[in-house]
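ESCALATION

Customer reports they have been waiting on this structure for their group meeting. Please prioritize. Original submission:
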Amino acid sequence: MHACTAPRFFPKARLAGGCIAAALCTEAPAEEVGFIEGARATLQARNYFFSRDYADIKGASTQSRTQEWAQGFILNASSGYSQGIIGAGVDVIGLLGFKLDSSPEHARSGLLPSSGTSADHYSRVGAALKFKVSQTELKVGELMPNLPVLLFSDLRLLPPTYQGAMLESHEFAGLTLSAGQSRSTSLRDSSNSQKMYALVNDPINPARLARFTSDRFNYLGADYAFNDNRSSVGVWQAQLQDIYQQRFYSLKHAEPLGDWTLGVNAGYFQAREDGRKLAGNYDNHALFSLFSARTGGHTFYVGYQQIGGEDGFIQVGANTNPMGNTLPTYEFSAPGERSWQVRHDYNFAAWGIPGLTSTLRYVQGREVKTGLGFEGRDRERDLDLAYVVQSGPLEGLGVRVRNVMARSNYRTDIDENRVVLSYSMKLF
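Update from on-call: job pushed to the front of the queue and completed.
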């Protein structure tokens, strides 16, 4: 696996690679905690009910409802590092899902593998070798990257994983350097690995890129935190080889002001076709901003998102992205779309009920280029309630309830409910 080879479009890859190589050559001891002494493992049980009702259906599908219920188990085990200049270790993940209720007419929720009828059970096991020198770590094998250009999307019963290599360095104060390559992926509702595909928000042909696949997703990124970690900036470059390449710039800041903390999370994506242009020409740029104000148990948000270029936002499927108005139901990232968000989070610990939280948000989008002769518009209202038991024999047991209403004049309307029970136990 040529995971450390810089993609040809990274103009500064050699410089960054030199910095990382220098860190790897530093004769600094590995972590004091040993291979066995630093080992830890957790097992999470996740019970997931998912229901979507469709109305005013648009597109080829005629399915009026998706509804399934499943039980999942997620094992995460991690060793410490061996002693010496280069510390070595291993991470293991085990995933197991069972069908509790489903029917062919209501399948394809993303909880279970489905080819008309959902599978009774599915599973996969993966491992990654890891090596550490000073503050630089390399992992090779089964990965769960959580990057702006490949955001970890644990939104169903079991999380997706990727197979490849990733390098992360914290050698310089405030600076995080990242690089990596994924060769394949295991989707959230699959036991198998497959090549990666591009998912683009296209009202005319939503699946127009999905049939084009690649076995190389390369990325290089740098994030710098300063101002006592209250501010950070970042720049990332990514490439799904021969399909698209994408650059991302980010800015985050938090400013205390009396009893309030004001914040901003802003970013800009720019993407175009790559290499052999397997999916044809592509043109997109996307801007998002999310402003926040927190006091006591309240956090208020206002967000704005704008999609430019000839195409909608693009990403590796079936994933999500860090843009502020991207929701699990509607993405608000179609060609030409402008969207606004208002949101309120509340932590009921301020009322003496620790563990109880709520989120209420509303997003409205317009100016979508539908290609149908009219302006596309959509809107979504989400309500999330979550509670985690804080003490007693059920300590750590969590329940999350989600209710969604999504409406559009160019895509199918959705009413959605989710109920998720989860319990994590520390094995060692």
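Sent to customer with the following note: The first strand starts at residue 40 and ends at 55.
Escalation resolved.
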